[in-house]
Fold:
Amino acid sequence: MADLALPDAADVLVKVTAADERIRVLVVRCTGVVNEAQRRHQTSPLASVALGRALAGGLLLSAALMKDQGRLTIRVVGKGPLGGILVDAGHDGSVRGYVAHPDLDLPLTEGGLLDVGQAVGRNGFMYVTHDSGEATYTGVVELVSGELGDDFTHYLAHSEQIPAAVSLGTQISGEGEVDVAGGLLVQLLPGAGDEIAWRLEQNVKAMPPFSHLARAGADPYDIALSALGGFNATLVSRQEVRFHCQCSEERVHRALASLGSAELRAMIAEDGKAEVRCHFCNLHYQISAEQLGALAASLVGPGDDDVT
Structure:
């Protein structure tokens, strides 16, 4: 059996099976990931919670759906004032993402909670693009609540035909920082049968919200066991997760090169430089006139007109 000891503060995703591998539970703790996203994008508490749920959901879905490699791109396009949410999550545990309006603020709900459903919008769509490295396809479903946990559950049931329940939680401190973030995915595997399905459903219904369990000190394996009360559980794997963006100056140069020599020279004449911002990580790249000129020159082949 795998070592059950987990680092106290690590961002980690665990996979647990039960009932002779007829149940699978995935639990992710990604507080550091969401804090990093909040820092990079300067998100309001409301936007931080919405983005945190989406990042956790992306990590859970990539672990559940991708086999040995590949990435998922998740687009949540609601009609609420938050605008779109975009998350890119990999089988390797890396994730990045952003929201269209990071400074959004709305009145609290009657229960005193941040109103994620209103921010995202209860009308709209979730698009999930699978990229295995060899093939790409996209599944799409309508949003059912905008709270995102229900929407990820709906996606799995209707686009992937996977019976599962997804619970996501991000809690913000009084100072506006992310206290806890993560979620769990409980999935019935083939051969589970009605009795196992009923027992598991009762367990999930009786569980406190993810954020309550995490804030009380429960680690991901403890949370998985809460969903698996009465079943013998086996820890299959654990994986560190992290906020990571693949952007780089080299990629920026390649993107600029795709514009062509004439457009690059127009940039030099008009602005004397180029500024590029990565939406995923909010990193800014400054490309000087000298760099643009060298890039433009590299695109001019023998016989081309190199007009300056």
Summary: Confidence is low (pLDDT under 50) at residues 302-308.
